[in-house]
Amino acid sequence: MKSSLPLPVRIAAGLAVTAVEQARKLPEQLTGLPVTVVSQALQLSMRVQQRVTELAIKGDDALASLRPVEETPEWATFDEDEDPEPPAQPEDPWLAEERAVSEHEDTVDEGEDDVAADGPDALPEYDELSVPQLRARLRRLTLDDLEQLLAYEREHAARPAYLGMLTRRIATVRAQENTDS
């Protein structure tokens, strides 16, 4: 059956009926109202946070395309990557230790080196060295010596700090050899 009443009157009547139905359900809904309000507020907050994060990611992508990506961030430096400090500045403790060790090694007899050969040939005292002590000795080793130490470390203790330092030093020496060629 089609109504002859205008559309706005029919809409108003529908709203009135809906209001009455909702008013009848109100006492049942009042008990769960606080939980519903809190839940909806949290959902809205989460949606806003997600939207903000999406916008930030899009912004990062847009800005990243405007500037070139650095292969190595400028804050990521390693001892073997840096040039030695000029003599006018305070002495580098690693260089001082390396100098002291090399002076000590110059005074050691050939026979004593053979007795202490527990570690690899390139660095017989290797097993007793801490990371800083090893770092102080790396600059005087050849590429073959470094590769020998890396193989020895992999076969024996396989300590991540030592493996990483030796791998980085080998890469640095290879890069220097490539630029010198």
UniProtKB/TrEMBL annotation:
Boundaries of every DUF8129 domain copy: 133-171
Lineage of the species this protein comes from: Bacteria, Bacillati, Actinomycetota, Actinomycetes, Pseudonocardiales
Compositional bias (Acidic residues): 73-85, 106-116
Protein species of origin: Kutzneria buriramensis
NCBIfam families to which the protein is assigned, alphabetical: LipDrop_Rv1109c
Matches recorded under InterPro entries: DUF8129 (IPR058442), LipDrop-assoc (IPR047728)
Pfam families hit by this protein: DUF8129
Biased composition range(s): Basic and acidic residues: 96-105
Protein name (record): DUF8129 domain-containing protein
UniProt-annotated stretches for the region Disordered: 73-127
